[in-house]
Amino acid sequence: MKLKTLLAGICLVSSVQALPCTSLIAGKNATADGSVLVTYAADSHTLYGELYHTPAATHEPGAMRKIYEWDTGKYLGEIPQPRQTYSTVGNMNEHGVTISESTWGGRPELADTTGIMDYGSLIYVTLERAKTAREALKIMTDLVKEYGYHSSGESFSIADTNEVWVMELIGKGGKEKGAVWVARRVPDDCISGHANFPRIHQFPLNDKETTLYSPDVIEFARKQGYFKGKDKDFSFSSAYGELDGTATRGCDGRVWSYFNMFSEGMDRYLPWILESKGEVMPLWVKPEKKLSVGDMRQAMRDHFEGTPMDMTKDVGAGPYKVPYRWRPMTFKVDGKEYLNERAIATQQTGFSFVSQMNEAHPQAMKGILWFGVDDANTCVYVPMYSCLTEVPHEFAPGNGDMLTLSWDAAFWVNNYVANQAYNRYSQMIPDIRRVQNGEEETLDKEVKMLLAGVRDMSTADASAMLNNHSRMASARYLKNYKALGDYLLVKYLDGNVKKEKDGKFERTPEGVCVSPNFPGYDERYYRAIVEDTGDHLRVKEFKK
């Protein structure tokens, strides 16, 4: 099996560049239409954005499933197949169960290379077997218990049409088989999230409806010397995570920004975010308004705008207010270490999604995976349905890769648009938003019509219609985004801005390009030049 086929949307745990994945959550009573919403950004500098599909299957007794480590392709072993496995599309299955993740690593001595189930395989094997979120929780923890856990510390969002859980899990370093873990059910009227740092601190010890945990989660921490207090004071995050100078700001900071968009009073947690001091940010908060799919899309496009970490405000944004910082994440000046902000939206995303799960939807649309590739800030989220039987060509595996450009691939076309904007963001982003918003508004209307239209259809007819819609929507988006990229190239060529009239680039009566605008740079940029060069570039005054 090819390595790129194995990388079905998992952030790689073997290198620092792969750690920054983000998952945001909204319970069904916190959303405008009663959907459970879960987002995910699979961020990695080497992950190619594709959508994967596994068909449902019936297996003969004795059939085995080979397990390959998702970040390396290394063969780890095999496990028995159940009689029936379910169809999956990306990180969702035919029953609308969705699982996402973010890696936090944790105590290095707890990494276990002896187990079979790495965190990526754990996700996709479970999606093939689970009908509900609670069933998924049991399958995941049973698999780890029986076959061992091959990865480091991980947070998972596990959701279905009725509920959503956050589970955090870490191995035992090979000293003992399996893992220690805790899972908490997010209240239906709340929002939650995780982003590469363990978010579960204290938890109730006697409430199986809302909290599940491995029997030895506290005992093992005591044995390892990670915890000495009373059971009721035990914090999973403090015991098994590792807090450093960038963990809360670069990780919890992303969840804080999401909370801050929809909940009042989040400034009280800024000391925790900025300095790892003060009151710990809660696992969930209640929003002031009910969220929509559109709200979640916008949350995935966040760069801390309007907060103390706003990436458009400092000199690093340059003259065009670029909300991106190239890696590495930290740098040194005069022996002191500094950091770049790490926002939800980032340039190195392979793919992202907003998963919409709703019990009131027609069976074929119980789950809608709004799927995008490359930077969430500039992508278009195209609906892929839980009944999908074929991946649209534009998102299909084998259509280009990280080293092979394909103009038929959504990943490359979105990069064509996004990478132009990284140079002149403040000028180009309004043009991108115009096309992006138009595409997503059209898709929202079409999905609304489909929700009504397929309700009385047979399963086969509904599946055919929805497969066709995903194909059509993907092709239309790709065509319009390729045209957008061409438009940006022409309009902003050589630092100029072409003039437009009646929706076309303006020409003289003789057919020649009208002289373009010369926007130059902003005042702060010019002042920085003067402060750096003094009178070196000053125009000299000569007497006549």
UniProtKB/TrEMBL annotation:
Hydrolase is among the record's keywords: yes
**EC identifiers of the protein:** 3.4.-.-
Signal peptide feature range: 1-18
Catalysed reaction equations from the record: an L-aminoacyl-L-amino acid + H2O = 2 an L-alpha-amino acid
Q: What keywords are annotated for this sequence in UniProt?
A: Dipeptidase, Hydrolase, Protease, Signal
Q: Which GO terms describe its molecular function?
A: cysteine-type exopeptidase activity; dipeptidase activity
Q: Which GO terms describe its biological process?
A: proteolysis
Q: Top-level EC class, please?
A: hydrolase
Q: Which stretches are transmembrane?
A: none
Q: Which family does the similarity line name?
A: Belongs to the peptidase C69 family.
Which protein, by its recorded name, is this? Dipeptidase
Q: Which organism is it from?
A: Duncaniella freteri
